[in-house]
Specification:
By secondary structure, this protein is mostly beta strands. Among the domains are: 117 residues, Leucine-rich repeat, LRR (right-handed beta-alpha superhelix); 147 residues, Leucine-rich repeat, LRR (right-handed beta-alpha superhelix) (Alpha-Beta Horseshoe), CATH 3.80.10. Helices cover 7% and strands 25% of the residues. The chain has five helices and 51 strands. The strands form eight sheets. It has a 25-stranded mixed sheet. Strands 3-5-7-9-11-13 form a six-stranded parallel sheet, with no helix packed on it. A five-stranded parallel sheet has the order 38-40-42-44-46, with no helix packed on it. It is globular, with a radius of gyration of 34 Å.
Length: 733
């Protein structure tokens, strides 16, 4: 009895030391009150005691948001069998005294910030079966002494900074079933003699060379995960002998060659990932042998040939990723009724031809249908409206059309009540938007139909799409005015209507207070720019160029401190530039060229330190170039990035070009609305027109001194004549 009391007292002192090492927090206060000498240690939170000796046999304080370090006194828990302190914020190194846990079978330090080198004293824990140190800050190599843990069944070391080789001595861990050391810095050796191993996870290391064919000796393997390494060469055909494999992950390596036919006989496979390699060849019909397959990821390789119809007969498939390859031919027309579990079909960036089969609607659980960048033809099937779970439909860059001039597929897609993003760019739809577009679910967040030959008016019912974030009907043949109802799209953040024939005033857009990007370029908008646009604080980019806008530029439009791009060029704007233009502190592109502005250039423009592109060409501005412009040139010289700042102005009736440049090429940058390659993301990159350095060199007669009117403290200014006869001044730093 005295010995039992001694055990309890020793264990109590050890746990009190742990409590006292914790940093003050609400969870710590809970333990401070509960772990008290006034109550039996066996009644404390997280503590389990043995029924005979009353010593602490298990301690579980996981996921309690505890913070602190581990005291050496914990090693005095001599009866401890199980310890779980995972999912907390413990830090520091593990005390060597923990090697006294000779009865320990289960140890989980996962999801903390414990660090230092992996302790060699782990080798003393001979009875340990489960060891998890994942997601900590351990460094160094794996100590060979770990081979002394002969009863170890599970070793989990993922997400640390462990380096070096996988120790050969691991082969002595004959009971090891799960070896998971993913996302570290291991560089060599894969242990392959572990007869009982069922899970080998080495994803996210620095392993090189070829995948060893001797892995086939691990005949009980169910999971083999070697993704995100630097393996080269072919996939060993011997892996096809691992008949118990359920999950095979070899993605994101440098694997080459054809996929061995033996691999298509792994009939128990559920997940197959060979994506993001350099594999070639085709996929045989024998892939149909994988009748339990749920995930097929072969994307971003150089696979070719036709897509076997057998894939679409695997009823268990949930994900098909064949995108970014060289597959040709058609999508199999007989998409089976068996695809009732398919949720994701990614076939984009291939060379597929033919039509989208109507039978694709048999995949009733489909959520993602991504077919962009192929050569698909025919009409967009109205049967897609049967896909009630569809969230993203992307058909960009094909040759698809509509069954009718009213674009009837839009009407049928209204039945897809979960649809969030619909992208149709660069297809010759050649028709009118139906009024039924107002019937889409409020789940719809984005519509993009760029360069689709869409005609007519924007339907008035578009205001019913109350969750819409992105609307892009640019580069079409839309006419008429913008529906007055559009102002109620309170969540709209991106609106592209540029390159149409819309005729209206701008006031309608003042109600769209969430707008960050507005592109109305190349239309027929007329009247003045309303002051209410300048009150919309979320604006980052505004494109109003190539319209018929008149009157003066509102001062508050030039006071938007977060505005990055403003293009008002090619209109009929008049008056002077307000001094408020100096408030555009975030602006890096400003184009007000080809207008009728007059008076002097505001000196406050020189305060725009972020400015990279400035064009005031073809106006009636007069006077001298403000001295404050030199501050901008100094800013560019200090920048580590390559920038080009240009100013095009008209002075005293003579066109002059002032170019401040860094680099071998001087570029005139005329900002235009970018085009999206995939359609789902709206990329905000610019497209530029260029003048070469040679053009400028030739215009100045090789920078002849006769063309050097004068020099200043910051630069030299040369006179030049461009090939079209324009007289220019070129300012070189």
């Amino acid at each position: 009895m005295a010995a039992g009391n001694s055990n309890v007292t020793s264990d109590q002192l050890a746990l009190l030391a742990l409590r006292d090492r914790m940093i003050n927090s609400e969870p710590r206060e809970i333990l401070a009150k509960n772990w008290s000498i006034t109550s039996p240690v066996c009644d404390w939170i997280g503590v389990t005691c043995g029924s005979r000796h009353r010593g602490v046999t298990a301690l579980n304080i996981s996921n309690m948001n505890l913070t602190g370090t581990l005291p050496p006194q914990l090693g005095n828990l001599s009866f401890l069998v199980s310890l779980d302190i995972s999912k907390n914020y413990f830090h520091g190194e593990l005390p060597r005294e923990l090697a006294h846990w000779r009865r320990l079978r289960y140890l989980d330090f996962g999801f903390n910030n414990v660090g230092g080198e992996l302790p060699s004293w782990f080798g003393y824990l001979h009875k340990l079966r489960y060891l998890s140190l994942r997601e900590n800050s351990f460094t160094g190599s794996i100590p060979p002494s770990i081979s002394n843990m002969s009863n170890l069944e599970m070793l989990w070391l993922s997400y640390n900074s462990i380096e070096g080789n996988v120790p050969i001595v691991f082969q002595e861990l004959h009971n090891l079933k799960h070896l998971i050391i993913e996302h570290n810095q291991l560089s060599d050796n894969i242990c392959d003699g572990l007869q009982k191993l069922t899970f080998l996870g080495l994803t996210g290391n620095s392993l090189t060379g070829q995948i060893p064919s001797t892995l086939s000796r691990c005949s009980l393997l169910q999971v083999l995960s070697l993704s995100v390494n630097y393996f080269t060469g072919p996939i060993p055909k011997e892996i096809g002998n691992l008949t118990k494999l359920e999950k095979l992950y070899l993605g994101t390596n440098n694997l080459r060659g054809a996929i061995s036919t033996e691999l298509w006989n792994l009939t128990m496979l559920m997940n197959l990932d060979f994506g993001d390699n350099k594999l070639t060849g085709g996929i045989p019909e024998s892939i149909g042998n994988l009748h339990t397959l749920e995930t097929l990821a072969l994307f971003n390789n150089s696979l070719s040939g036709s897509i076997p119809a057998a894939i679409f007969n695997i009823s268990s498939l949930q994900y098909i990723g064949l995108h970014q390859n060289k597959f040709s031919g058609t999508i199999p027309l007989t998409v089976s009724n068996k695809l009732s579990n398919l949720e994701s079909l990614f076939l984009y960036r291939n060379d597929l031809t033919g039509v989208i089969p109507n039978s694709i609607s048999n995949a009733s659980k489909l959520v993602f249908l991504i077919l962009y960048n192929n050569e698909l033809t025919g009409s967009i099937p109205t049967s897609l409206g049967s896909l009630r779970n569809l969230k993203i439909l992307n058909l960009v860059f094909n040759r698809l059309s509509s069954e009718s001039s009213e674009l009837s597929f839009f009407t049928f897609l209204t039945a897809c009540r979960s649809l969030r993003y619909l992208t149709l760019n660069n297809n010759p739809l050649n028709g009118f938007l139906p009024a039924s577009i107002s019937n889409y679910s409020t789940s719809l967040e984005g519509i993009s139909a760029v360069t689709c030959k869409i005609k007519g008016n924007i339907p008035a019912g578009i205001n019913n799409l109350s969750s819409l974030l992105v609307l892009d009907f640019s580069d079409n043949e839309l006419i008429g005015s913008v529906p007055r109802t559009m102002h109620s799209l309170a969540n709209l953040q991106v609106l592209y209507l540029n390159s149409n024939q819309i005729r209206d005033v701008l006031d309608i857009f003042c109600g769209l207070h969430s707008l960050g990007l507005l592109s109305l370029s190349q239309n027929q908008f007329f009247g003045s720019i309303p002051e209410c646009l300048g009150n919309m604080t979320n604006f980052r980019q505004i494109f109003l160029d190539s319209n018929r806008l008149t009157s003066m530029i509102p001062a508050n439009l030039l006071s938007m401190k977060d505005l990055q791009i403003l293009n008002l060029s090619s209109n009929f704007l008049s008056g002077s530039l307000p001094l408020d233009i100096g408030n555009l502190k975030a602006a890096y592109s400003l184009d007000i060229s080809f207008n009728q502005l007059s008076d002097k250039i505001p000196t406050t423009i020189g305060e725009l330190q972020a400015l990279q592109n400035l064009s005031l060409a073809r106006n009636n501005l007069q006077g001298s170039i403000p001295e404050s412009f030199s501050y901008m040139s100094n800013s560019i010289r200090r920048s580590s990035k390559r920038k080009v700042l240009l100013l095009v102005i008209s002075l005293s009736g003579m066109a002059a070009i002032l170019i401040i440049a860094i680099g071998a090429l001087l570029n005139l940058k005329w900002l235009k609305k970018p085009k999206s390659s995939g359609g789902t993301e709206l990329m905000l990159a610019a497209k530029y027109e260029r003048f070469s350095y040679y053009d400028l060199l030739h215009s100045t007669d090789n920078y002849n001194e006769s063309n050097l009117p004068g020099e200043g403290s910051y630069c030299s200014v040369y006179k030049g004549i461009l090939s079209d006869g324009t007289v220019v001044a070129i300012k070189l730093l």
